[in-house]
Amino acid sequence: KSKGSPIRVGSEFLCDLLTVEETAQQLKLAAKTVRKLCLNRSITAIRVQNCWRIPTASVAEFLRERLIPRI
């Protein structure tokens, strides 16, 4: 594999990973809340030593699952 090429995990590619702080900013949540979501597996995340990394696709999926359809 060449350096910088996306890594395939299951059916997803992990090319864009966000930090807890970046994810919290996107979701307009506290970083502590995002860490709790990672710990209880409500959002798919990767633990790298002491840091969480969240794929952008996981953030989109998290929001899609919580979307309230129009009536």
Index terms:
single chain; 71 residues; alpha+beta; 3-stranded antiparallel β-sheet; two-stranded antiparallel ribbon; 3 helices
What can you tell me about this protein's structure?
There is one protein chain. By secondary structure, the chain is of the alpha+beta class. The chain is 38% helix and 23% strand. It has helices spanning 20-27, 31-39, 56-65; strands at residues 7-9, 12-14, 17-18, 46-48, 51-55. The strands form two sheets. It has a three-stranded antiparallel beta sheet. A two-stranded antiparallel sheet has the order 1-2. The radius of gyration is 13 Å and the shape is globular. The chain starts with 6 loop residues before the first strand and ends in a 6-residue tail after the last helix.
Number of strands: 5
- H/E topology pattern: EEEHHEEH
User: Which sheet architecture does the biggest sheet show?
Assistant: 3 strands, antiparallel
**Order of strands across the main sheet:** 3-5-4
Output mean pLDDT. Answer: 85
Helix content estimate:
25-40%
